[in-house]
């Protein structure tokens, strides 16, 4: 029987409180032993039996900690992940992996040198809607794909005060925030594109970081459209898939994040299951299997990220989210900003 992995969180902000801590607590394979929280006492309130410390240095120096979750502001990922690896710890980095490809390469090389597992929390690979789209494509339910569109929109017509995410700092803005999810999904489905053509901007009054993007990824015989905005009040399709034999359209967002915010325990019988009214619609004229109707959404499961990580560290298994894949996403983000600046498509 493998021993649980002693794990530390470097922050107890939104990602720590809503995502990482509940997922780790739900899995016996992990033991959350340390949390860094400098100001508010929420971590102590929620986890009275866990060591809550004020200094990140205490985590790096703690010999009992095997795994460190780097879920701090994006510009700190290189520094803190490097220090964790140098201290002999396995590392999970919150998305986006790093700010630049150069930083990503440094971390990948250091993890290899130290013989430690390095991965990135690309949890939306386990969204039920994405798993459904992936299955539709793999099973060729609409034939050869000619156009794929993914939206990750919100309605937030104000600029949130006192948060680093709204400050013009390295790695902030909607492309790093939400684009790191949707670009990762595009690469998972279709690989790296041939060209990137992006338009990025600020739409909210008083905004200081980009809050809108429209990215076109061009492949041979395939166009992938990746869009996001903080000013979308009306519900839009999450995924639109067009093929030579039909289309698949999916509204709604995977319920896991909302359930985690509502303090539901991950992994229950109905965990990750979507309401039938949100199931996507398939309209296909495949000669041997025509179909028009709803397609049940696959069950989402963010726990799979950590289950895979445990297997990789302890057994070992094959890492589901490789750091090199996360590096490719950062490469695309860099190209998006270059394309926007030059107002032209950039060859990958």
Provide the fold topology.
Elements: E1 5-9, H1 14-26, E2 30-36, H2 42-46, E3 51-53, H3 56-60, E4 67-70, H4 77-86, E5 90-94, H5 101-114, E6 118-121, H6 128-138, E7 145-151, H7 174-177, H8 179-190, E8 195-201, E9 212-219, E10 222-229, E11 239-243, E12 246-250, H9 256-261, E13 280-284, E14 291-295, H10 303-314, H11 323-342, E15 346-347
Parallel strand pairs: 1-2, 1-4, 2-3, 4-5, 5-6, 7-10
Antiparallel strand pairs: 7-11, 8-9, 8-15, 9-10, 11-12, 12-13, 13-14
Helix pairs in contact: 4-5, 5-11, 8-11
Summarize the structure in words:
The protein has eleven helices and 15 strands. It has 348 residues and is of the alpha/beta class. The protein has two domains: 117 residues, 3-Layer(aba) Sandwich (Rossmann fold), CATH 3.40.50.720; 193 residues, Dihydrodipicolinate Reductase, domain 2 (2-Layer Sandwich), CATH 3.30.360.10. The strands form two sheets. It has a nine-stranded mixed sheet. Strand 4, helix 4 and strand 5 form a beta-alpha-beta unit. Helix 4 packs parallel to helix 5, helix 5 packs antiparallel against helix 11 and helix 8 packs across helix 11. The model has no long low-confidence stretch (mean pLDDT 96).
């Amino acid at each position: 029987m493998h021993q649980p992995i002693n794990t530390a969180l470097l922050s107890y902000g939104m990602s720590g409180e809503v995502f990482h801590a509940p997922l780790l607590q739900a899995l016996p394979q992990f033991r959350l032993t340390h949390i860094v929280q400098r100001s508010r006492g929420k971590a102590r309130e929620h986890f009275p039996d866990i060591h809550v410390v004020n200094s990140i240095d205490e985590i790096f120096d703690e010999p009992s900690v095997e795994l460190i979750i780097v879920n701090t502001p994006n510009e700190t990922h290189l520094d803190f992940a490097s220090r964790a690896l140098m201290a002999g710890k396995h590392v999970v980095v919150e998305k986006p992996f790093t700010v630049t490809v150069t930083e990503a390469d440094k971390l990948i090389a250091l993890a290899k040198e130290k013989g430690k597992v390095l991965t990135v929390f690309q949890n939306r690979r386990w969204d039920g809607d994405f798993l459904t789209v992936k299955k539709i494509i793999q099973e060729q339910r609409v034939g050869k794909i000619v156009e794929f569109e993914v939206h990750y929109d919100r309605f937030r017509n104000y600029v949130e005060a006192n948060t680093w995410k709204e400050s013009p700092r390295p790695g902030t803005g909607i492309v790093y925030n939400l684009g790191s999810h949707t670009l990762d999904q595009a690469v998972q489905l279709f690989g790296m594109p041939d060209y990137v053509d992006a338009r990025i901007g600020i739409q909210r009054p008083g905004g200081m970081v980009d809050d809108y993007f429209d990215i076109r990824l061009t492949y041979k015989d395939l166009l992938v459209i990746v869009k996001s905005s903080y000013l979308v009040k009306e519900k839009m399709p999450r995924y639109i898939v067009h093929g030579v034999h039909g289309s698949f359209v999916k509204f709604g967002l995977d319920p896991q994040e909302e359930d985690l915010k509502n303090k539901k325990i991950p992994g229950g019988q109905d965990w990750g299951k979507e309401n039938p009214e949100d199931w996507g619609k398939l309209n296909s004229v495949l000669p041997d299997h025509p179909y028009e109707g709803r397609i049940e959404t696959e069950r989402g499961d963010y726990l799979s990220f950590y289950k895979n990580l445990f297997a990789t560290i302890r057994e070992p298994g094959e890492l589901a989210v490789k750091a090199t894949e996360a590096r490719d996403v950062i490469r695309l983000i860099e190209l998006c900003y270059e394309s926007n600046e030059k107002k032209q498509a950039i060859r990958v």
